[in-house]
Amino acid sequence: MIRTRVIIKYLGYILLFNALFLSISAMISFANDEDSVSALLFSALLTAALGVFPQIFVEKIEEISFHEGLAISVMGWIITCIVGMIPYYIWGGEFSLVNALFESVSGYTTTGASILSDVEALPKGLLFWRSSTTFIGGVGIILFVLLILPEKKGVQASFYRSEVSDLSKMNFRARSRYIIRMIATVYFTLIVVETILLKLLGMTFFDAICHSFSTVATAGFSTKNLSIAAYDNIWIELVVMFFMLISSMHFGLVYGTMTNQKTNIFTSRPARMYMVVTFIGIILITFQLAQEKVYGLGESLRYASFQVVSLVSTTGLATVDTAKWPLFSIILLLYYSIQCGMVGSTAGGIKFDRIYLFFASVKKQFKSIIHPEGMYVVKMDKKIIDHNLELQVMIFIVAYLITMMTTTLLLATMGIDGTTSLSASIATIGNVGPGFGDVSSLGNYGQLPNAAKYILSVNMLLGRLEIMNVFALFLLLCRKD
Amino acid sequence: MIKSLKIKIVLSLSLLILMLMAAGVISILDFKKIGNSVDTVLKNNYQSIESAKKMLDAVEREDSGILLWLIGNKDSGIETVLGSDSIIRKAIVDIEENITETNEAQYVGAIMDEYEQYYSSVMTILKGGYNTEESKQIYYSRTDSLFLKTKEAINRLMVLNQDQMYRQAGIVKEQSRRAMMPAIVSIAAAIIFALLLYFFIGTYFIRPVRQLINSIKEYYPEKGRLSTGIVSKDEFKELEEEINQLIYRLRRTKNSI
After folding, report:
1. Whether the Cβ atoms of residue A317 and residue A244 lie closer than 8 Å to each other
2. HSE-up of residue A204 (Cα within 13 Å, Cβ side)
3. Of A125, A200, A230, A302, which residue has the fewest beta carbons closer than 10 angstroms?
4. Does B213 touch chain A (CB under 8 A)?
5. Which residues of chain A approach chain B closer than 8 Å at the C-beta?
6. What percent of chain A lies above the pLDDT cut of 90?
7. What is the average pLDDT across A135-153?
8. B174 contacts chain A (CB < 8 A)
């Protein structure tokens, strides 16, 4: 049985956490004497008031069930996205109701797709809020709330079960509360180190911190209209590229590498394969760009490596407009936008581990056909994958592709061209951000019809919540008992 | 953890009041900003546009004055020229004191330059001692083109201020929208507050009362303690405890009798 008051109480905590970042954004706006102060301050007060309200009435919760954890997790994301749009909508400018919702969902889900044609026209306070949404969404607001709350272990375990996918749990070898700390350690360390490096390379502190939030959360929001291309600095590109790649790898493995443990990104087979597949993409695209004389060899390598890492990590920062690239390169980039990073990272999409598992499973099926009497299992990093988990992965991939195709068809019925429809659908469900056609890496989603923006917002949320959780909650709420 | 129902109600209503007050204060401040913006538009741009219009009229009159002079109405012509000149010079001073836009000083400087050339050409006709035909020649060859250039320079200044005024009007429109938004969002939030309050009243007020009523209805002395199932630690739990104490005291009195 799901206790409504428990869900409301935890949604209150989530709102309070958002109010904290809204307050910081309001302070930044105030310090810069901007006209967004009132929008941010009012949003902070409203969010805080709505967050405190349940705490007044609902008693301390000793434990929550898995179903309650699932409901809080899914509803938490939805409520957060709605609250996140308030400052945008109040401030106005390019933010109509649907645009504000789209930008908020895009930030929290770390998609990084934007409706803004002129990002630099935004006040710093709102720019910081925009980056904060990616920071909060990076590891998930639920995990953030768990980090702060001095709650019972049972509560953390329930949330952990509902928020972290089964496949990603494989590389975490500790109890849920330690894992949450581990994730936070990696997340904060990466942000701090990247901010320092970007500052040293010439960015302002504000830009450095916003881009670090965006990179480590694999979101892709920039404070510049031309994204990373605005800096035209190869060292900045290299730093951002490194952090995009690291952030798209399993945080348990990154932690293992940072603390010099046996299980790390160099010993994990899927991690090594992920790097190899990414490297192959870079080489192929570099070769085509150079051969077709789009750029010289050096520039081809520079742009291809940044764009491949940016899309495979689902970050979406850009140094060049990839929509003008040859078809083969675009198809490769579309594949990376579907494959995306590794499970247990801040990246979205199907995730490399699932693709890896899919091929391992196909291989097992072939073996079974050839030797029907044989018993075969699928292994990942020398661990046998449970048949249920294998099935779960297959169902996820099918559900993901069905959702993607449905969205593409819906967009196409609105008169949007095929390239834009398909790439927008891939880019939003994979939380990548930029696509091709009208929504290319240096373009935006602002010109799409309002209905398309609503559909893509739902798509981003489905992608972030990994589809099955949303359907599970829907079925749970429809149950008569 | 707050246990008293009274404090819970007071706090929840205080939150609602606080939110509405914040919306009110922010709206008032934003409307004040709109007032300031309108003042700015009037002061910065409208005044300059008015002065430019005065200048245009005066330059036109000055030109009419010289034409009057050329057709023989010499006294009336000189009077018109001199009167217009003083109006133009005063308008230039007014505009110089109200330079608010980027490059506006250059625009005013250009007007002054063009006008001085025009005025000197007019004075050449009036005081040069030329005959009518020679004066007409000077007018058509030089004065008329300088007159048009002066008008152009004044028009440029007017357009600059008009454009800025339209831009400011756009900003004022955005500000008025922004001032209304807290009120609109507050209405939506107040509805959410009301729904939440309805839920909490149902959970923490109505349900315990029903639990108490049902438990008392189903109670019989052999049951021992009255158990209502109330989980909160507020006044309802206290009431349950008091009822149990009462039962205990009554039972003791009955036993002693």
Report:
1. yes
2. 6
3. A200
4. no
5. 4-5, 8, 35, 38-39, 41-42, 45-46, 49-50, 52-54, 56-57, 59-60, 86, 89-93
6. 61
7. 73
8. yes
Q: Please indicate, yes or no, if residue A174 is contained in any of the structural domains.
A: yes
Q: Chain B: nearest CA to A60, how far in angstroms?
A: 8
- Tell me: do A136 and A278 sit in the same domain: no
Domain match, A154 and A200 both = no
Asked if residue A180 and residue A49 are part of one domain, the reply reads no
The answer to whether the Cβ–Cβ distance between B196 and A93 falls below 8 Å is: no
pLDDT of residue A171: 60
Q: Cα separation of A68 and A155, whole Å?
A: 10
Please say if the pLDDT value at position A149 is more than 70.
Answer: no
Can you tell me the mean pLDDT for A36-46?
92
Is A297 among the domain residues?
yes
- Let me know: does A94 contact A116? Beta carbons within 8 Å: yes
A473 in a structural domain = no
Between chains, do A38 and B186 touch, taking CB under 8 Å as contact?
no
Nearest-CA residue of chain B relative to A85? B185
Contact status of B205 with chain A (Cβ, < 8 Å): no
**A174 and A156 in one domain?**
no
Across chain B, what does the average pLDDT equal? 87
Report the domain count for chain A: 2
A176 and A157 both lie in a single domain? no
One-letter amino acid for residue A315 of the chain: T
The pLDDT assigned to A161 comes to: 63
Residue A268: name the closest of A366, A353, A371, A367 by CA: A353
Whether residues A9 and A32 share a domain: the answer is yes
> Which chain A residues have a beta carbon less than 8 Å from that of B182?
38, 42, 90
How far apart CA B207 and CA B230 sit, in angstroms, is 9
- The nearest CA of chain A is from the CA of B48 a distance in Å of 27
ipTM over 0.85: no
Is the pLDDT assigned to residue B59 strictly greater than 90?
A: yes
Same-domain status, A154 and A210 = no
- Distance of alpha carbon A216 from alpha carbon A315, whole angstroms: 8
| Ordered domains of chain B (ranges, CATH) | 5-180 (1.20.120.1730), 191-256 (no CATH)
Residue range of the domain that includes A35? 1-163
Residue ending a domain, choose from A163, A179, A206: A163
**Residue A458 is assigned to a structural domain of this protein:** no
How far, in whole angstroms, is CA A181 from its chain's centroid? 19
Mean pLDDT check: name the lowest of A169-183, A231-245, B28-42, B231-245.
Answer: A169-183
Do the beta carbons of residue A58 and residue A5 sit within 8 Å? Answer: yes
The confidence score (pLDDT) of residue A44 equals 94
Mean pLDDT computed over B169-182: 84
Residue A479, exposed/middle/buried by CB under 10 A (0-12, 13-18, 19+)? exposed
Per residue in B115-166, pLDDT tens?
A: 999 999 999 988 878 888 888 899 999 999 999 999 999 999 999 988 888 8
